[in-house]
Amino acid sequence: MTTSTTARLEPIDRLEDKIRTLVAHIGRLRTEQGRLADENARLQQELDALRVQLEAGTSAAAEVSALRDERDQMRGRVAEMLEQLDALPL
Predict the structure, then answer these.
(1) What φ, ψ does residue 89 adopt, rounded to 5°?
(2) Degrees to nearest 5, angle at CA 18 with 14 and 19
(3) What pTM was estimated for this model as a whole?
């Protein structure tokens, strides 16, 4: 090859190198995108599970509150009955 042919091919060689670099970069980006999509799906499942747990905890807290109210009512009734028993002339 002559010097002028080599000089004309250098820009093509640089372009080819840039295209190869770009293709490799796109491959890495696609791989990363796949990994991130998998991670996103895993985190979404984890979030859904935590929401279920939160809902169960909220439900349990409401049940505990209701049971405490019922216990307080029972204590009041028992205290009232004891007062009535104390008032009986025995």
Answers:
(1) -80, 105
(2) 115
(3) 0.58
What's the Cα-to-Cα distance from 71 to each of 23, 63, 78, rounded to whole Å? 71, 12, 10
9's CB contacts (< 8 A; 6+ apart) are 1
Q: How far are the Cα atoms of 24, 28, 33 from residue 38, in angstroms, in the given order? A: 21, 15, 9
AA letter at 43: L
Burial 54-74 (b: 16+ CB within 10 A, else e): eeeeeeeeeeeeeeeeeeeee
The tokens describing 4, both together, are 């002028």
Read off the pLDDT of residues 51-78 as tens digits, 9 standing for 90 and up: 999 999 999 999 999 999 999 999 999 9
